[in-house]
């Protein structure tokens, strides 16, 4: 078992408060010093204790399995336009939207379900706030989306949960009032603001830093260097170091080379049993084997905000990738809030609702802001 620290830093005094995080093969625990675990059913106050059970480690990606078909299905060159859908396709699409209706169409019902509860927003970045682009370094969000997210954060606690490096996501968004969970939640930093949570104890000059996989940093850097060298012979492939995980993008790789690329990646990862290989949207990702994902990041942030065991919280998570399914699943298991999938085509998902693209995400967020702060009630939102 190894210990990691959750550091709460005071930027003016230089004093650090820390939460010790113990990481083992069976579980991850986060505790504040000299505080007992909260009693079941507690709400916010009473110790900062997180116990996250770990039942198994995901197996290495089977590059000889059906993942290529999955990639083809999500590729813009293979997705059918609605006008070209066959009768069977159309029936399937209608059946899917019946179970995952548009969040815009169902906005009033969502608001009704949230009455009397604190809405907390969780947003993926790529494909959710920004369009999917060939070059991941150019995934810029629009200025209109940035303004919308800024207004959203003035009304609700808002977090960005991304597989990207936290610093890179912040560079894209540049809003200091947000919570940022990079590397699939393995690198979380909170804004300088107040919170009722006894776990984080945010004050006017304090912020949160949570990195449960710090011990993996040298290994990640080593594997990154090997992968950069390994895939030089694959045109269009790009390796991105996201600090606590590595992304191998193949959106610009010829489809005939996908399997060979995956084999090359796996040949490197097999020598590192403490890392695992997973699949995302046109990306292969290498992560530490600790049981930590976007769903655990969502739970941690709710804990940090003081809503770990509250019945009056209403989390909304919006994302487009299979890595977001971990968060959608957590919301279903908690029976709190809703997940919203961003997709133009039917997909297996734990989300309750759907929107088609980032422009519809923006419309949904704008409606939330308008609902929260109509002209006569703007004073109720933070400035």
From TrEMBL:
This enzyme's EC code(s): 3.1.3.12
| Catalytic activity, reaction form | alpha,alpha-trehalose 6-phosphate + H2O = alpha,alpha-trehalose + phosphate
Q: Which cofactor does it need?
A: a divalent metal cation
Task: Give the record's pathway.
Answer: Glycan biosynthesis; trehalose biosynthesis
- Which principal EC class is assigned to this enzyme? hydrolase
MF terms from GO for this chain are:
trehalose-phosphatase activity
Entry's Gene Ontology BP terms: trehalose biosynthetic process
Q: Where on the tree of life does the source sit, at the highest rank?
A: Eukaryota
Keyword terms: Hydrolase, Stress response
Q: Which InterPro entries match?
A: HAD-like_sf, HAD-SF_hydro_IIB, HAD_sf, OTSB-like, Trehalose_PPase
Q: Tell me its family.
A: Belongs to the trehalose phosphatase family.
Describe the task this protein carries out. Answer: Removes the phosphate from trehalose 6-phosphate to produce free trehalose. Trehalose accumulation in plant may improve abiotic stress tolerance.
- Name of protein: Trehalose 6-phosphate phosphatase
